[in-house]
Design a protein that fits this description.
With 353 residues, the protein is α/β, with parallel strands linked by helices. Helices cover 42% and strands 18% of the residues. It contains eleven helices and 16 strands. The strands form four sheets. It has a seven-stranded mixed sheet. It has a four-stranded mixed sheet with strand order 11-8-9-14, with helices on one face. The chain has a three-stranded antiparallel sheet with strand order 1-2-3, with helices on one face. It is globular. Bound molecules: 5-S-methyl-1-O-phosphono-5-thio-D-ribulose.
Length: 353
């Protein structure tokens, strides 16, 4: 049974499952410098919205450890440098900024007695962020599993599993929870060009868990829905705007359109840390543009002719009207999301949830 966290702190090192070399190799990377954490996020050794949030938090804890400052003020200045570079590592997943905000609040939120106290507090906070993510995913999984019929074929996109979080997963967490309830599940995994998170990572996780699955090229989802019967789609998210527009891995929007066309429910599973109430709609979400070679080069060779440019937007935005429900740790939200998200945000702010 696959039970390793994607990221954890051990012996004063940040340990991460290397998601670049999977599924060929299961390798744990060890980092003792926050700058390596920035690089690990950029190169996607660690990826997935909640996982990079936890990585940023541990990165801040490591920056405190790396700092040679003898006064709190100097350490705060060192931490600001790390904060800004971690914040610049990837732009779309709001969980990264959510975690950094939480760490920054701590850095400046108290009159620290000394650098050691601040160091210890930052490590404790990062551990809390990681532990909470696991707990939140399991709650989300239980809410989402109730939406899954006793026998179900589920289409997913990208990897929103244990690897994309600290542990358990969001969309794949829903699948795992339903599976553990004894449901008869088959997962259709979109391969997810160009980085192949579906083919490489989701398939690997499902195989570890013994959950039946089949990997398809991204373009097969429409055909599958017409011919083979898909009961529901469930995907994760990198940022949800206040009106319920959902940013997720490029190709998610296409899947949602095809699901709508075929009358297939389309669910998004995401923790509250993925919701960005400061953005009124999805067009305001920054979309990461990654290097051309991620799509243009396959097995070391360029597929398209020299001189034919390749675009590589890493995410797209699915408009709220295509989303059947948003599964959070607080339950399943329904349309109109501008209302249901606002209501939940108010309840959380008031300490009622
Ligand atoms: O570019 P990636 O692999 O970091 O993109 C990840 C996704 O799009 C996931 O679906 C999303 O972060 C949700 S993960 C629980």
């Amino acid at each position: 049974m696959f039970d390793t966290r994607s990221i954890y702190w051990e012996n004063d090192q940040i340990c991460m499952i290397n998601q670049i070399v999977l599924p060929g190799e299961f390798k744990i990377e060890h980092y003792d410098n926050w700058k390596d954490v920035v690089a690990a996020i950029k190169t996607m050794v660690i990826r997935g919205a909640p996982a990079i949030g936890a990585a940023a938090a541990f990165g801040m804890a490591m920056a405190a450890r790396n700092s040679r400052a003898s006064t709190v003020e100097t350490m705060q200045a060192d931490l600001q440098v790390a904060h800004d570079q971690l914040a610049a590592s990837r732009p779309t997943a709001v969980n990264l900024f959510w975690a950094l905000k939480r760490m920054a609040k701590l850095v400046h939120g108290k009159n620290w007695a000394g650098v050691d106290e601040l160091r210890a507090a930052l490590l404790h906070e990062a551990q809390c962020i990681a532990d909470e993510d696991v707990e939140v995913n399991k709650r989300m999984g239980a809410h989402g599993a109730a939406l899954v019929p006793q026998k179900a074929t589920i289409n997913t996109h990208c990897n929103a599993g244990s690897l994309a979080t600290v542990f358990w997963g969001t969309a794949l967490g829903v699948v795992r929870s339903a599976w553990e309830q004894g449901k008869d599940i088959h997962v259709f995994v979109d391969e997810t060009r160009p980085r192949l998170q579906g083919a490489r990572l989701t398939a690997w996780e499902l195989k570890q868990l013994g959950i039946p699955h089949t990997v398809f090229s991204d373009g097969a989802s429409g055909h599958n829905m017409r011919r083979r019967g898909v009961d529901l789609c469930v995907v994760g998210s990198d940022r949800i705007a206040a009106n319920g527009d959902v940013a997720n891995k490029i190709g998610t929007y296409n899947l949602a359109v095809v699901a709508k066309e075929n009358g297939v429910p389309f669910y998004v599973a995401a923790p509250w840390s993925t919701v960005d109430m400061s953005l009124m709609h999805g067009d305001l979400i920054p979309i990461e543009a990654r290097g051309e070679d991620e799509g243009a080069v396959i097995e070391g060779g360029r597929v398209m002719p020299e001189g034919s440019p390749a675009g590589n937007p890493a995410f797209d935005v699915t408009p709220n009207y295509l989303v059947t429900g948003i599964v959070t740790e607080y339950g399943v939200l329904r349309q109109p999301y501008a209302v249901s998200l606002r209501k939940l945000a108010d309840q959380i702010e008031a300490g009622e949830r």
